[in-house]
Specification:
Layout lengths: L1 H30 L2 H5 L3 H28 L2 H19 L5 H15 L2 H12 L2 H10 L1 H4 L7
Helix pairs in contact: 1-6, 3-5, 4-5, 4-6
Length: 148
C-alpha cells in the first residue's frame, strides 16, 4: 500500500498546494500594485475576492454530477488544463471586469478539484484506508493533531 501512497499522494498534494497558492496569490498581487495598475477601488477589489467563492460554491455541486459521468483521471486532467489556461489568460487582464471574469472562471475550474481528488482516491483505496489518505492532504492536515 505504501507504493500506491508514494505514487498518488505527492502529486495530489502538489495539486492542492498549487490551487491554494493560486487562490491566495491575489493578496500578493494587491501588495505588488494590482489595485493601482487596474484602477481598483477597495470595494471592487473585495468583489474580485468574493466572486471566486460565489462561482466555487455554485459549481461544486455541478462538478460532482459531472464527476459521476467522467472517469476521475480525465476529469482532474480536464479541470487542471482549464485552470492553467485560466491562469495564463489572467495575465492579460487590463481592467476590473476582466479580473472579475477571470476570478469567476478560476472558481469554476477549482470547484471540482477537492471532490475530484477525493473521488479519485476512493477508486484506489478501501473505505477503511481512505480516511487517513484524505487527512494527509494539505487542506486537512493542518487541523489534525496526533494524540500520544
Amino acid at each position: 500500500m505504501w507504493k500506491l501512497d508514494m505514487a498518488l499522494i505527492p502529486w495530489l498534494t502538489i495539486l492542492y498546494l498549487l490551487a491554494f497558492l493560486d487562490r491566495a496569490n491575489i493578496g500578493n498581487a494587491k501588495i505588488a500594485g494590482l489595485s493601482h495598475d487596474l484602477g481598483l477601488s477597495t470595494s471592487q477589489f473585495n468583489a474580485t475576492l468574493t466572486i471566486f467563492f460565489v462561482s466555487y460554491s455554485v459549481f461544486e455541486p455541478l462538478t460532482n454530477v459531472l464527476l459521476k459521468r467522467l472517469r476521475p483521471s480525465r476529469f482532474i486532467a480536464t479541470i487542471m488544463v482549464l485552470w492553467g489556461l485560466n491562469m495564463t489568460f489572467m495575465g492579460f487582464v487590463h481592467n476590473w471586469s476582466g479580473l472579475m471574469a477571470a476570478r469567476w472562471f478560476l472558481g469554476l475550474t477549482e470547484a471540482g478539484l477537492f471532490p475530484g481528488i477525493n473521488y479519485y482516491l476512493s477508486c484506489w483505496y478501501k473505505r477503511s484506508e481512505l480516511g487517513i489518505r484524505v487527512v494527509r492532504l494539505p487542506p486537512n492536515h493542518v487541523s489534525v493533531t496526533k494524540r500520544r
